[in-house]
Amino acid sequence: MAVLSVGGGEARIAPCAGRGGDFAGDLADWLAWRPALVVSMTTAAEMERVGAGGLRAELAAAGVDWLHCPVADYGVPDAGWEGIAAKASHILIRGGRVLFHCMGGCGRSGAAVLRLMVDCGERPSAALSRLRAVRSCAVETEAQFKWASRLG
């Protein structure tokens, strides 16, 4: 499980529920971790392809907030990120838990968590090392690192 402390709370990076063919099992695992918020970094089409099209409704039924930040594979967030970051940071600073996922649980979700780490005052390179200690594939492109580091 790729979990690390961020801003006083915990952030988890995961592959998309259903990616391995067991949406119900993946969702049960996520819910057992008790996140206050799940942030989907995948496109709606990607989620549909793996059987996660009903994720929002399933999370709502369990009392978990959900935000969608669709990003193309290997890309970075654009419009809407600031609002998502504000909500995630609010939860993390108060000791809560936020789960981020993309399709593989590496690039897009890793970049989002790295950005929050940097926003909490961590140096980008040190934060990336700490992040990769729990999720070695986190942040896949130079563009993702630059975005997360606020360099681009």
Notes on the protein architecture:
With 152 residues, this protein is of the alpha/beta class. The protein has one domain: Protein tyrosine phosphatase superfamily (Protein-Tyrosine Phosphatase, Chain A). The protein contains seven helices and five strands. It has helices spanning 23-33, 44-49, 55-61, 81-93, 107-119, 124-134, 142-148; strands at residues 2-6, 9-15, 37-40, 65-68, 97-102. A five-stranded mixed beta sheet has the order 1-2-5-3-4, sandwiched between helices. Strand 1 (2-6) and strand 2 (9-15) form a beta hairpin. The longest helix has 13 residues, at 81-93. The model has no long low-confidence stretch (mean pLDDT 96).
What's the count of strands? 5
- Count of runs of 4 or more consecutive helical residues: 7
Number of domains: 1
Strand fraction equals 15-25%
Q: How would you describe the oligomerization state of the chains in this entry?
A: single chain
- What is the 3D shape? globular
Helicity range of the residues?
40-55%
Low-confidence stretches: none
Ordered list of secondary-structure elements with their pairings:
Layout (H helix, E strand, L loop, with lengths): L1 E5 L2 E7 L7 H11 L3 E4 L3 H6 L5 H7 L3 E4 L12 H13 L3 E6 L4 H13 L4 H11 L7 H7 L4
Parallel strand pairs: 2-5, 3-4, 3-5
Antiparallel strand pairs: 1-2
Which features characterize this protein?
single chain, 152 residues, alpha/beta, Protein-Tyrosine Phosphatase, Chain A, 7 helices
Question: Short summary of the structure?
Answer:
The protein is α/β, with parallel strands linked by helices and 152 residues long.
